[in-house]
């Protein structure tokens, strides 16, 4: 006969049948004293615990009665038995991790979207549709290169919205761009490429991740037309041609063409290509040389960084090395989240959400640009979630102290530089909520006034 199934709680007790009723009482008592059975929590019913331990129900009933009399358990007619607070010893609180910096009230850090804009209702509706119609295999380990449904959906979406030539067989799903940097650093190592160039300046976190794979990291200067391609000598290069990060310029058409003719493997980080405000978005570089360019995109700016959803469109020659590096990385986004994103895109909900965000972020950028003092002219195009405000070296050096005084989190440019130092603020107008943006902008203007003085 099949074993009777218990619908109660699973618990661990340091007890064996040979210890008898007194030993069982001691084990329960110790679990409460240790804090493993938390004050106020429901304990297994006498019937369920007796079944799980293979003892008579009366044995467990007597143990519970004794412990209730001692103040360890709390019983009530018609209600489940709970752990009382009297017998439990307070748990030692974990030692708080010392924060490097105090939390700031106002947030203008670059590279962060407004978390309040995450479309909870749309995400929930798509998740429900996926759960209603998906196969049971969805809850397995999934495909090595990511969901075929999402890859096919991205193929159509990227071709339509960014001009990317994206065969689903050449798309790999990863856990965001940081994960992509680790994967690509290792994959390029496997095909003999051991040096990667980055724009100078650029966000140092991605340089560090590539360097951690053993890649030699070099910088190539950026001017008003993007990376100076004439100074590129590395066999692989990471660029942000649509909206250089952090300067904000667009790579000129002639440099885009020249870059694709260098013979280097190009990683195109299209980190905020959906957000162009002054005119139509610049198309992806990848379309000029799909066998030389690795196109990288994510949902971090359009939806939320915590989703850890990204994708790579690869040259044919790098598909297998990247899949192998992805497998050894041990990370892969949730297949359920992949299918939810695919549903959002295929139903048009994703496009509508991006358009709503575009309107909100454009309004913030216009408001920020109009509020800046006249002598501070932001660099770059009207796009993305940040702008750069040039400062003198002396003024930038004061920023950490002055910004802290006004409880403002904002980044400076010089830590992102590799060779010749640039100086300024990188103001992220996406990080604050809509209601908090006004206060953050006021804090920024107060900081700039002090720097001016």
Automatic annotation (TrEMBL):
Q: Which Pfam families match?
A: Aminotran_1_2, GntR
UniProt domain HTH gntR-type: residue ranges: 18-86
> Which keywords are on file for this protein?
Aminotransferase, DNA-binding, Pyridoxal phosphate, Transcription, Transcription regulation, Transferase
* CDD domains for this protein: AAT_like (cd00609), WHTH_GntR (cd07377)
- Give the highest taxon in the source lineage: Bacteria
Cited Gene3D superfamilies: Type I PLP-dependent aspartate aminotransferase-like (Major domain), Winged helix-like DNA-binding domain superfamily/Winged helix DNA-binding domain
- Work out whether the entry's keyword set contains Cell cycle: no
The entry lists its GO molecular-function terms as: DNA binding; DNA-binding transcription factor activity; pyridoxal phosphate binding; transaminase activity
Similarity remark: In the C-terminal section; belongs to the class-I pyridoxal-phosphate-dependent aminotransferase family.
How is this protein named in the record? GntR family transcriptional regulator / MocR family aminotransferase
Origin species, per record, is Kibdelosporangium aridum
């Amino acid at each position: 006969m099949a074993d009777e199934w218990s619908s109660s709680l699973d618990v661990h007790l340091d007890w064996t049948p040979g210890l008898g009723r007194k030993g069982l009482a001691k084990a329960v008592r110790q679990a409460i004293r240790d804090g493993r059975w938390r004050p106020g929590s429901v304990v297994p019913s006498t019937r369920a615990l007796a079944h799980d331990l293979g003892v008579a129900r009366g044995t467990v009933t007597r143990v519970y009665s004794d412990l209730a009399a001692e103040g360890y358990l709390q019983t009530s007619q018609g209600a489940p038995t709970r752990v009382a607070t009297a017998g439990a010893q307070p748990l030692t609180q974990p030692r708080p991790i010392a924060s490097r910096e105090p939390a700031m009230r106002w947030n203008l850090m670059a590279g962060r979207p407004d978390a309040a804009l995450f479309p909870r209702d749309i995400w929930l509706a798509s998740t429900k549709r996926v759960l209603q119609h998906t196969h049971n295999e969805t809850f397995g380990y999934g495909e090595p290169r990511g969901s075929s449904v999402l890859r096919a959906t991205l193929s159509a979406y990227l071709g339509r919205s960014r001009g990317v030539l994206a065969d689903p067989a050449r798309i790999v799903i990863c856990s965001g761009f940081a994960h992509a940097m680790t994967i690509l650093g290792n994959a390029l190592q496997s095909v003999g490429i051991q040096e990667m160039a980055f724009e100078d300046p650029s966000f140092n976190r991605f340089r560090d991740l590539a360097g951690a794979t053993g890649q030699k990291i070099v910088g190539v200067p950026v001017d008003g037309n993007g990376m100076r391609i004439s100074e590129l000598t590395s066999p692989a290069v990471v660029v942000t041609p649509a909206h250089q990060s952090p300067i904000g310029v667009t790579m000129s058409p002639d440099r885009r063409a020249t870059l694709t003719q260098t013979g280097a493997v190009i990683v195109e980080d299209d980190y905020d290509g959906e957000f162009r405000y002054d005119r139509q978005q610049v198309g992806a570089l990848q379309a000029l040389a799909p066998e030389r360019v690795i196109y990288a995109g994510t949902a971090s700016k359009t939806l939320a960084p915590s989703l850890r959803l990204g994708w790579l469109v690869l040259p044919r020659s790098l598909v297998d090395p990247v899949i192998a590096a992805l497998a050894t990385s041990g990370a892969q986004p949730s297949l359920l989240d992949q299918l939810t994103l695919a549903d959002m895109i295929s139903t048009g909900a994703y496009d509508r959400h991006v358009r709503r965000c575009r309107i909100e972020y454009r309004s913030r950028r216009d408001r920020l640009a109009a509020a800046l003092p006249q002598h501070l002219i932001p660099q770059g195009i009207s796009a993305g979630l940040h702008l750069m405000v040039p400062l003198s070296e002396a003024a930038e050096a004061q920023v950490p102290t002055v910004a802290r005084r006004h409880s403002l989190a904002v980044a400076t440019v010089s830590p992102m530089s590799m060779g010749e130092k640039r100086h300024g603020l990188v103001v992220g107008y996406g990080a604050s909520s809509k209601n908090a943006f006004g206060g953050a902008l006021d804090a920024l203007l107060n900081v700039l006034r002090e720097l001016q003085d």
